[in-house]
Amino acid sequence: MRPVVVRNVKIGEGIPKVCVPIVGTTREEILEAGEKILDLGADVAEWRVDWYADIFDADQTEETAKGLRKALGDIPLLFTFRTAKEGGEKEIETAAYAELNKNAIKTGLIDLVDVELFTGEKEVQEIIETAHACGVKVVASNHDFQKT
Predict the structure, then answer these.
(1) 79 phi/psi in degrees, rounded to 5
(2) How far apart are the first and last CA of the chain?
(3) Which of 24, 26, 101, 136 has its CA 20 to 30 A from that of 88?
(4) CATH number at residue 81
(5) Percent of residues, the chain, with pLDDT higher than 70
(6) Structure confidence by residue, pLDDT tens digits, 84-115
(7) How confident is the prediction for the chain on average, in pLDDT?
């Protein structure tokens, strides 16, 4: 496997990388967590947007992403909406999941996007194509709590 370079971080080479989640429910909590990550020495920040109270408000989400991107500086930002079916905080329809992720990608504020592999073949393909077109790396995920 070839290493993947995201901002100044080379994933897949050298020592394992540290990814710290941000699970705030408000913009203030999220931005505060983003600032603390700088002190923790994290290699990557994962914004678990399924925890964010205003996630379904596109304008609020983009404004929060702008603030978080500024707070993180050069630390790569992974955008993750973990669905309830895979252990996340919120339910979401498949089409809304795809739109949410594609909109986040198009902002240019995120570096990586987590895509739940079994969300829906068409929607997953759309998210991946959008990510590739915008230079955002894709992390494919599946959480099976019965078998792992």
Answers:
(1) -95, 120
(2) 24
(3) 136
(4) 3.20.20.70
(5) 95
(6) 988 889 999 999 999 999 999 999 999 999 99
(7) 93
Is residue 91 in some structural domain?
yes
Domain count, the chain: 1
The answer to the question of residue 148 being in a domain is no
Q: Pairing mode, if any, of strands 9-11 and 4-6?
A: antiparallel
Amino acid symbol at 138: V
Q: Is residue 57 part of a domain?
A: yes
Across the chain, where does the E strand assignment appear? 4-6, 9-11, 19-22, 44-48, 77-80, 112-116, 137-141
Q: For residue 145, with 0-12 CB atoms within 10 Å meaning exposed, 13-18 middle and 19 or more buried, which class applies?
A: exposed
Residues of the domain holding 30: 20-141
Give the tens place of pLDDT for each residue, 74-85. 999 999 999 998
Structure tokens at 30: 């999220």
Q: Is residue 58 part of a domain?
A: yes
Where would I find the H helices in 73-137? 94-106, 121-134
SS3 content of the chain, % helix, strand, coil (to 5): 40, 20, 35
> Per the structure block, which two tokens stand in for 102?
């594609």
Give ∠ CA 33-38-39 in degrees, rounded to 5. Answer: 95
DSSP state, 123? Answer: H
